[in-house]
Amino acid sequence: MITGDILRDAIISAANNLSNNRKAVDDLNVFPVPDGDTGTNMSMTVGNAVRELEKLSGATAGKVAAVNASALLRGARGNSGVITSLLFRGFAKGIGDAETVSAENFKDAFALGVEAAYKAVMKPTEGTILTVARVASEYAARSYKAGKDEVSVFEDAIEGAKAALAQTPELLPQLKKAGVVDAGGQGFVLILEGMLSVFKDGVVIKSNASTTAIDEEDEDSSRNAAGEFEGEITFTYCTEFIVNRAEECEKEPQELRSYLETIGDCVVVVDDEEIIKVHVHTDHPGNAIENALTFGSLVHLKIENMRDQHEKAKHDAQNAKAKPVKNADRTETFTPAKPEKPVGFVSVCAGDGLAELFKDLGVDVIVSGGQTMNPSTDDILRAIESTPAETVFVLPNNKNIIMAAEQAIPISTRKVIVIHTRTIPQGIGAMLAFDPDADDNANEIAMQNAIQRITTGQITFAARDADFDGFKIKQGELMAMLGGKINFVDTDLEKSVLKLLKKMVKNDSEFITVIYGSDVTARQASEIEAKIQEKFGAKCEITMINGGQPIYYYILSVE
Fold this sequence. Notes:
Strand content: 15-25%
Oligomer: single chain
Shape: globular
Number of strands: 16
Structural class: alpha/beta
Distance between the termini: 62 Å
Largest sheet: 6 strands, mixed
Radius of gyration: 25 Å
Number of helices: 23
CATH topology of the largest domain: Serine Threonine Protein Phosphatase 5, Tetratricopeptide repeat
């Protein structure tokens, strides 16, 4: 018999199992763009429920499932996290208000979870977590029909999930090419295995947060980034990597050391005949990477924000002394802003310049986040509730944040309209299209239409080696993105910007906007602006913006 306490322990066990294997799931991601990786997003989503579940004792299975579903909904991060939360929301519906979980409950839970997840995804892709969950549900249904008990039904569901996971490379060519299974599907299997450990053996998988090699590496990173300085931090980013020396390169490692000393401090360059190991503190890690690429290919790249880590360390130390209200309790003490106007706006972005730009355009509340920092549904909900307006338009500005934003709609006290902006330029275009004299429906249509007229290009770096969409990409190389897809790979930043703009500008193009990031100096931006003016100035009006965004050296917009 699966009681509420057993179900509670099973979900905690699942959260621990996923957390213990978070990095392994992250490493399954085949897309080389730095992003909020699947394992991290799913782990943070499921982990959000642990604090709430630990408060329950003697509750019914239905109560445990409902509390878990609510916590996951608020904590959902990224598309994989949202889908996971939807699976558990359906799971809760399948258990209903039952005292204990029966075989039928499990059968219904899997079926309703899959139904909820598929409905939420506009264009479901087979070969993902959706497929793995669907096949698990099918196995559970067959097992129940065969008259098996609740544990056996759950065990058979896992068998189906594993079988589907093994087939994901056959459904998605990019997975097969990379020789990996789907990351989201793997995460879901880990969740189910964590739960089965309790259902079948009565064993709660413990968190290895303080002992695993994965988390030791994370802790070491924090110490490297934050613990090296007790005083003032001169440069922001602790940057480390190894250069696999190119045979044709005749340059000496001392040249790399000399360059790094002009852009930072704490420079360590150790070399032998095959590699160069580099450590530097700098405000411009992108420049360090680009220079190093002239010596060979890069591996084991690691960039840590020392200021951020240092502040977090101080904050954690202060919190440990003060013992403040837990994060899970913050919704209880949060007071929504009183609506004082008809319409307000929430925008997600990263970078001080972009935040100021959106505020200048009329955005009330900025949610800090983006490619590597997917905010949770609760983060977005709190921003909505902090907006003093009756109707709140939300601009996610990233495809991996749209679903999390939409989950806030039914739990907000406001009317919420999520505009499906996938990029920063689309968010800007949507704000410019807003008409204060039009009603909500007309504005929603106008803003959605506006983003269709915007072409977005992005220049970033490869976070990992990859063979993706016909490109053999080395970690650290520049990637030019057009419409969210890799268009070409290069090592020259200036040439990449001009080449990408040439592909973006059409006969009827009138405006070019160039947003430069935190790794681009004002001088570099001025130099590239002059070249863009020379090449496109006669045809288009050109605007340069210091966005200050991380990850993307340049974000380009053409209208």
